[in-house]
Amino acid sequence: MRALRAVAGLALGAALLAGCGPAASTDGDDAPPKTSTTSGPSPSGGTSGSGTDPTASPTGSPDTSPTASRVPAPGETLVRVTRTGGFAGQTHTLIVKGDGSWTRLDAKAKTESTGTMPETGLAALRTALQEADFAHLPRIATGGPTIYDGYFYAFVHGGYEVAGDQGSLPPALNKVVDALPSFTAG
Question: Which residues neighbour 116 within 8 Å (Cβ) at sequence distance 6 or greater?
């Protein structure tokens, strides 16, 4: 059952991501995002070949800085987190932009609510994301205790996707969850 929930959570996260259009270009123009021609781990954890540096960034060059060191433009996504499960089995996604504005989506990717994080909250989130060092986290966190009726999280930040059950998340990702706006209204 736990594995089925994990697969369902990943599938939902992928479906939500696929429906959001092309990634924002960091060049400031409307050119398609740059892709790597090298083989090795992809940002979402799969492989496009073999025999390359596992710390390679999405562009294929070695990742020598923390993933959150580049401050995203105000309209660019800072982090996207999908949470599924819990006692009620609900799905919610939070999208936080570089300026601290956020949107909460329901399971059908419809907007539930929006808001803006206070500067101190946004600074805490940026710090938590930087300390998490997404480039070096396992793509699927495993090994923690089973939390019945717990949550499954899928994080997307800095070109990397990391996911795991609530009990398996590394402490650094728990800090990210704590710094986010609420997944539910109220």
Answer: 99, 100, 101, 102
The DSSP code sequence of 59-115 is: TSSB--S-TTSSPPPTTSEEEEEEEEETTTTEEEEEEEETTSEEEEE-TTS-EEEEE
Residue found by looking up tokens 């499960």 in the block = 85
* Count of residues making up the chain: 186
Q: Which two tokens stand for residue 93?
A: 């996604």
Q: How far is Cα 40 from Cα 62, in angstroms, rounded to an integer?
A: 12
Query: Which residue type sits at 112?
Result: E
| Contact between residue 168 and residue 96 where contact means Cβ atoms under 8 Å apart | no
* Reported pTM: 0.62
Give 146's DSSP letter.
Answer: -
Cα–Cα dist 130/118, whole Å: 18
105 vs 186: which has the higher pLDDT:
105
Across the range 99-118, mean pLDDT stands at 94
Backbone angles phi, psi at 21, to 5 degrees: 85, -175
Distance CA 96, CA 128 (A): 13
Distances (CA, A) of 74 to 7, 16, 20, 71, 143: 33, 21, 17, 9, 37
* C-alpha dist (Å) from residue 118 to 32, 81, 100, 123, 177: 32, 19, 7, 9, 16
